[in-house]
Specification:
The structure is a single chain. The chain is mainly beta. The strands form three sheets. A five-stranded antiparallel beta sheet has the order 8-7-9-11-10. Strands 2-3-4-5 form a four-stranded antiparallel beta sheet, with no helix packed on it. A two-stranded antiparallel ribbon has the order 1-6.
């Protein structure tokens, strides 16, 4: 999920209000210090007051990246030769321009492809994860992929429910080792249960 300041919000944005996604239907500057944000979610409408500098989380984040297809350059003629190779997805524009401007001396560009991705995040609870050894249910739409992410913790992609549970175990063990409380005899006490919010992410690349 991407953070965004309230001053940069727009109608139609989907943000995380508490633990549920809500769509921004209207914005009103009530004072230099207060912005009224009208929200809608599953038949419910309400107004939330924010500071313009307050940070909220976007649940739907569009992204654009590029893939450059190139060939080895003939050092004599400067033209491409041999098989065509594909770069990884390049998000920074300056990296794309570097390829396009022949900044890589031994390569020549064959074609440039633009890829659009939409990431949608929805909070779930631990009991909604797939059981032990079960695969992650995939969306019905062709090209969509579903995976998990711990909110503000751990890696960006967790493929299965088992991966999520293992990551939570690792966090609990780290907390116990580094910050765990001890009794008066120096024995380590059991850490409290760790239950951060989970965000399943659906990515679609048309």
């Amino acid at each position: 999920m991407r953070q965004i300041e309230v001053r940069h919000l727009y109608e139609g944005a989907v943000i995380l209000d508490g633990f549920r996604p809500a769509t921004v239907t209207a914005l009103e500057n009530r004072s230099p210090y207060t912005v009224a944000v009208r929200l809608h979610s599953t038949g419910d409408n309400w107004t939330a007051l924010y500071s313009p500098a307050a940070v909220v989380l976007l649940c739907v984040v569009p992204a654009v990246a590029w893939r450059v297809h190139h060939q080895q350059r003939d050092r004599t003629t400067g033209e491409g030769k041999g098989a065509t190779h594909s770069s990884s997805r390049l998000s920074p524009v300056h990296a794309v321009r570097r390829y396009w401007a022949y900044g890589v001396d031994h390569q020549t560009v064959v074609r440039l492809e633009e890829e659009h991705t939409v990431v949608t995040s929805t909070p779930i609870t631990l009991d909604q994860l797939p059981g032990n050894g079960q695969p992650t249910p995939q969306p019905t739409e062709c090209g969509d992929r579903r995976f998990y992410q711990l909110h503000r913790r751990g890696p960006l992609v967790l493929r299965t429910g088992d991966d999520v549970r293992q990551q939570l175990t690792n966090i609990a063990e780290l907390h116990d080792r580094e910050h765990g409380k001890r009794d008066e005899r120096g024995n380590r006490l059991a850490p409290p249960p760790l239950r951060p919010a989970l965000l399943p992410l659906r990515c679609r690349t048309p």
